[in-house]
Design a protein that fits this description.
Elements lengths: L17 H34 L4 H6 L5 H12 L7 H26 L5 H19 L6 H21 L5 H35 L10 H14 L2 H18 L5 H27 L6 H25 L6 H22 L3 H20 L4 H83 L9 H16 L5 E8 L2 H8 L1 H19 L4 E6 L2 E6 L5 H15 L3 E3 L2 E3 L3 E8 L6 H18 L4 E3 L2 H22 L4 E9 L5 E12 L4 E3 L1 H11 L2 H19 L5 E5 L2 H4 L4 H12 L6 E6 L7 H14 L2 E7 L6 H6 L4 E4 L1 H6 L5 H13 L3 E5 L4 H10 L3 E3 L7 E2 L3 H8 L16
Parallel strand pairs: 6-7, 9-11, 11-12, 12-13, 13-14, 14-15, 15-16
Antiparallel strand pairs: 1-3, 1-6, 2-3, 4-5, 8-9, 8-16, 8-17, 9-10
Helix pairs in contact: 1-3, 1-4, 1-5, 3-4, 4-6, 5-6, 6-7, 7-10, 8-11, 9-10, 9-12, 10-11, 11-13, 12-13, 13-14, 16-17, 17-18, 22-24
């Protein structure tokens, strides 16, 4: 538990200026330790002389203990600022002082019982000086000061209370009460130090002082409570010495008892001061003033009690001391009451009563009256002057604060006006420049892409037009490069548009760096970029530059979710060979990009005039494919699955086949399937293929077989795809468990969450899901684990790899599938050697030309009849196909 919680709010350390306060502590501890050592030596000498302490030399050696904290403080002050550790030094110093105090407390506990009463009082008086020398340096850190005060006072006070003799009980109680009274002293010292430090470093307060009548009254009441602590301390000291003066064996107990009560009263007054300073608005202003007035009257009544209880020992000498003391107390009281005229007059009147009463006890009554009246008038005149001086001083300080505040406000206003004038001057002087800058900015925005910072379509078209004008003047030839990113849509859809923007920005930076200022680059739109090379060499040079650029773009790009890799295909058109206008050149570069993508991603193609005719043919092919889909002219062929266990037939894979009747040729699926995906015909084509495949399996009348149909990711992304599948199954009458849907690994680059949901709905219907061509795309083990899959189809390239020693890789894929609880289909088995190796390495089903080429739906019934009684024989080294 933190000791700070038990301290009054005004004593709680807020941790400000720790370094500065620690330096102040170290400086004070040197002086405090020196004072403590001197008075300890004097007290020791006095006790030795009066009581003859035998072991005084042992005690004298203990005085050297004060050198340790002095040395520590001096060493800290000599260190450089960066070498100082305030917390460590402060805690170490506090522990050393605790050890010193503990040693002296033990010495005091041993010495005090053997002293006579007079010697004990003198020793305690000197000891109080030592106590304050221990405590006051630590007042800048209140909790340390309070702890050291308690360690100083409590042990000896308790011992005094237990000693035999008149008044020792009350004498010891005075020490306990003194501890509580000194809480106010520590609080006052801490506030004073912090006020000085804060004002020095932070300057005057920035808040405007309250100049109202109520505000000034509140300030005067605050001044009463804030400045009364010194008066309380001085009156307590006066009371202590007065008790010592009047002390006699017969009245000693009563005198110490009165002092204990008087100190208790001062402790309560100090508590009131602390409460008001800590929260002045806790009570009404009148209530705080009344509480303070009650304390003033109670203080004077305590002095009257002293006179009443001990009037019989007030002889001539003591009477003079008491009278003088009351005059001193009257003067001391003005220290804290000068801001309030009523309380000041009341206090002086109460202070004057005892000396006047004492003087009236003399014989020369009229002389005493004259002197008393004169003294009283003098005191009141002095008090009035003190009050007025205090009030004027307070008003002067308030006015000074107001002046400083207004001065700062005016200075701030002047600074703002000066700054505004300078800004206005700058604005007027630079207005034309800003207009020009804004014009340039608008021109930049009109000619540049805001995401990548490259030029835009407008900018690039202008540059091409300028190159054409130069060409007409007979200056060489130039090339236009059109760059189309590969797989960008997959990244943009799968990782989000923010990731897509980051990829485009990085790609643009690489293109710009690769162009190296010798070529003009721009963003044409989407994931397409264009480059203009105004001084071009031969085709070999063009290929070399484009290939280096493609290789640069293949390097991984770091995103928040990890690294991604993508490439680019580049098409090139050369002027004047491939066109004499910007439109022609860009159109031919676009055709070249398409040819590059057709040849394989990440390739470069220079336009050929023949490709223009092919582009027209492609357009005709798209139209023919659309007509074929609408007229249901796309057929299916089926290739069997064979079980590795017994060679039995387990199902078929449906493969699309299309013969273009207009041209009289069959079109390869490798041509028309990508064409359908590019042109948006894939959903309609996929529905036709699925319907025909299901119908073919029903017509085969083999309920033990299943049909596998390939799907495109574009089909899965259709909102009504699941309903389409359910409707086709209902139309054809095929049970969902007999349908298997094959997808390539490209589905992992799409909208993963949505695709997982769709596949889950299909699985819930009973449809099997398989991954086709595994190992050729973007597969991830986590995707294989999280997606609802049944089968993994090993691509034929891995079977071909077995011919070059790829057994370990093949086995790893099989083990991975089985570890994920997926069955394995091996496709592309074409020879007996392939079959033997596959049988050795594992899997559940086999597919390939070794067993059968794709069978048309018209020939399926005859093929099944031929193989119905003669399944495939898979015996090792004696492989044959039933005839």
């Amino acid at each position: 538990m933190n000791l700070q919680e038990f301290l009054p709010p005004t004593m709680r350390d807020n941790g400000e200026f720790l370094e500065l306060r620690t330096i102040l502590l170290m400086k004070r501890i040197i002086g405090g330790s020196a004072i403590a050592m001197i008075f300890s030596a004097v007290a020791l000498a006095m006790v030795t002389i009066r009581s003859g302490v035998d072991y005084w030399y042992v005690v004298a050696v203990s005085l050297t203990f004060y050198l340790v904290p002095m040395y520590l403080a001096w060493g800290y002050l000599r260190k450089d600022a960066e070498q100082r550790n305030p917390d460590q030094a402060r805690n170490c110093l506090a522990r050393m002082m605790m050890m010193v105090i503990s040693v002296w407390s033990l010495i005091g506990l041993a010495i005090l019982p053997g002293l006579d009463a007079s010697t004990r009082v003198i020793a305690v008086s000197m000891f109080l000086v030592v106590v304050y020398a221990h405590m006051l340096p630590f007042a800048i850190f209140p909790k340390y000061a309070l702890g050291l005060m308690a360690l100083n006072v409590l042990p000896l006070s308790i011992q005094l209370m237990t000693l035999e003799g008149p008044g020792n009980l009350f004498f010891g109680m005075c020490g306990v009460v003194l501890l509580f009274m000194e809480v106010g002293t520590i609080s006052w010292l801490y506030r004073s130090d912090m006020s000085v430090i804060t004002k020095h470093f932070n300057g005057p307060a920035t808040k405007e002082p309250d100049m109202s009548v109520e505000g000034f009254r509140r300030r005067k009441v605050f001044a009463l409570h804030n400045s009364s602590t010194p008066a309380v301390i001085l009156q307590a000291i006066a009371a202590f010495f007065l008790v010592i003066t009047l002390r006699t064996p017969e009245h000693e107990a009563m005198l110490w008892g009165w002092l204990a009560g008087y100190l208790s009263l001062q402790a309560m007054r100090s508590a009131g001061f602390i409460s008001h300073v800590g929260n002045a608005r806790a009570l009404r202003l009148r209530t705080w003033r009344l509480i303070f007035a009650v304390g003033v009257v109670a203080n004077q009544l305590a002095w009257y009690t002293l006179l009443h209880l001990f009037h019989d020992i007030l002889n001539g000498f003591n009477l003079g001391i008491v009278s003088g003391m009351f005059m001193v107390i009257a003067m001391i009281s003005t220290l804290g009451l000068s801001s309030d005229r009523v309380l000041l007059y009341l206090n002086i009147a109460l202070c004057m009563v005892p000396p006047v009463a004492i003087m009236f006890s003399g014989e020369d009554l009229w002389s005493v009256i004259s002197l008393g009246t004169l003294a009283s008038l003098s005191m009141f005149v002095v008090a009035e002057n003190v009050h007025r001086s205090t009030v004027f001083s307070m008003k002067g300080r308030v006015l000074q604060k107001l002046t400083e505040y207004r001065s700062r406000q005016m200075q701030s206003l002047n600074d703002e006006l000066t700054e505004a004038r300078e800004r206005l001057t700058e604005v007027n002087q630079s207005l034309e420049a800003q207009v020009d800058e804004r014009t340039q900015e608008l021109n930049y925005q009109a000619t540049h892409d805001m995401l990548t910072g490259l030029g835009n379509r407008y900018y690039f078209a202008n540059k091409v037009s300028e190159a054409l004008e130069s060409l007409q003047q007979g200056e060489g030839r130039f090339a236009v490069y059109l760059l189309d990113l590969d797989r960008f849509k997959e990244i943009n859809d799968g990782l989000g548009h923010l990731a897509g923007d980051q990829v485009l920005t990085e790609i643009a930076a690489r293109i710009k760096e690769h162009c190296d200022g010798e070529r003009i680059c721009a963003r044409w739109g989407g994931d397409e970029f264009v480059i203009l090379e105004t001084a071009v060499g031969g085709e070999a040079t063009i290929h070399q530059f484009a290939s280096r650029l493609v290789e640069s773009l293949r390097q991984p790009i770091s995103l928040e979710g990890g690294k991604v890799s993508l490439g680019a295909s580049i098409g090139v058109a050369i002027c004047p060979e491939h066109g004499s206008s910007a439109e022609q050149l860009l159109e031919h570069a676009d055709i070249a990009v398409y040819r590059a993508k057709s040849a394989g991603r990440g390739t470069v193609a220079i336009y050929d005039d023949q490709w223009g005719h092919e582009a027209a043919e492609r357009l005709q092919l798209v139209q023919s494919l659309q007509n074929a889909i609408e007229n249901d002219e796309v057929d299916v062929a089926l290739q069997p699955f064979v079980s590795i266990d017994d060679g039995g037939l387990t199902g078929f894979e449906a493969l699309a086949r299309w013969r273009d009747e207009r041209r009289g040729v069959s079109v390869s699926p490798a041509v028309f399937i990508p064409l359908a995906e590019d042109t948006g015909l894939m959903p309609a084509l996929g529905r036709n293929i699925l319907r025909k495949a299901c119908k073919a399996l029903i017509e085969a009348k083999r309920p033990d077989l299943r049909i596998a149909v390939n799907l495109s990711v574009t089909q899965l992304e259709q909102e009504d795809f699941v309903q389409d599948v359910a409707r086709i199954l209902a139309e054809t009458g095929l049970h969902p468990e007999r349908l298997e849907l094959e997808l390539t690994e490209s589905l992992f680059a799409g909208d993963v969450m949505y695709i997982r949901q769709v596949l889950g709905e299909l699985r819930n219907m009973g449809i099997r899901i398989s991954i086709d061509d595994f190992g050729t795309g973007y597969s991830s083990i986590s995707y294989l684990r999280d997606f609802p899959l049944d089968t993994l189809k090993i691509d034929q390239s891995f079977v071909a790899g077995l011919r070059q020693g790829g057994e370990s890789l093949f086995s790893s894929i099989v083990s991975l599938a089985h570890g994920l609880k997926l069955s394995v289909i091996v496709e592309g088995v074409e020879t007996r050697s392939d079959l033997e190796k596959v049988l050795d390495l594992g899997g559940e089903e086999i597919q390939g030309y070794f067993f059968a080429r794709p069978i048309s739906s018209e020939d399926l019934a005859a093929w099944l009849k031929e193989h119905e009684s003669k399944p495939f024989n898979l015996r090792r080294r004696y492989l044959s196909v039933g005839s």
